[in-house]
Target: Ribonuclease H protein
Amino acid sequence: MDMKVWGLTTNGNFTIKSAYHSLESVSIQDSMSRLWNLVWKWPGPQRIKTFLWLLVHNRIMTNEERARRGCAQTPSCGRCPAQNESILHCLRDCPFSHGFWIKLVKGKSLSLFFGTNIIDWIKLCLTKEIGMHEVDWGITFGVAVWYLWKWRNQQIFEENFTPPWNPVSIIMTMVSEITKSLLPENGVLVEHRKTCVQLCWIMPPDGWVTLNTDGSSRGNPGVSGAGGLLRNSDENWLAGFAVALGVCSSTSAELWAVFHGLRPAWKLEFKKVMMEVDSKTVAAYLSNENNGTNLHISLIARIQKIMAQD
Ligand SMILES: [Zn+2]
Model:
């Protein structure tokens, strides 16, 4: 004879407690899958996205985790031995990390920021704008935790490593580069005939045009600009541009120069374009010899997309 049983208890009898636990576990799963989604959609470099994925899965090999797996003798923090090095300790609460966040998080959000468990902390940082700078906090958070972990490893494993004296500015530079690489296609483009400097020029074959570009960064990273010009095989000037880029690295500036140079070439319907750049790194990135650091990947992909257009 068939009979109804409650599947969440061993004896088949319904209890409020088992129903409550069941609902609770569904809501935890929902919440975790929302968090994984947030990490999945994080817009910056893949290496940082991968780090965030490890973070939400509790797979960062801190001393506490290494000791738990029997790979380390002590779970203590290598930088302030009185505390166990959990993920939260390492990336947020350790004095080496704490002082750093104070310079990034809005004062009114500090108690929430330092008062949550790890999952709520990551969720908070990927969903709320709690940064004191005028940039996306989710991107800033991802870049910051990635750098904190990198510097922690260097401090422990590299004998001569000195922590950077300007960590916030290093992070903000990367944030700014990621933000710029996400700009829509119709970014700034200024026609400017007289400011382009010819560095090197080889006459292109008939029917081809040459694009010369140059990008520079005062400080690397620092205030940067890019410019370039297009000429045909009769040595005639066809178009030129000069663009202010804000703060970025010299490699970024060179890449932006190519990006801004290819767009007028495409607009003017030149499909046979010889490019001359004065950076071996950028030439290698664009010819696929080297896919570049992940930091530049989205910008390289946008340039390669223009190059591949027919
Ligand atoms: Zn510590």
User: Anything to note?
Assistant: Residues 39 and 187 are 27 Å apart (CA to CA). The chain has two domains: 42-181, 209-308. The longest helix spans residues 16-40.
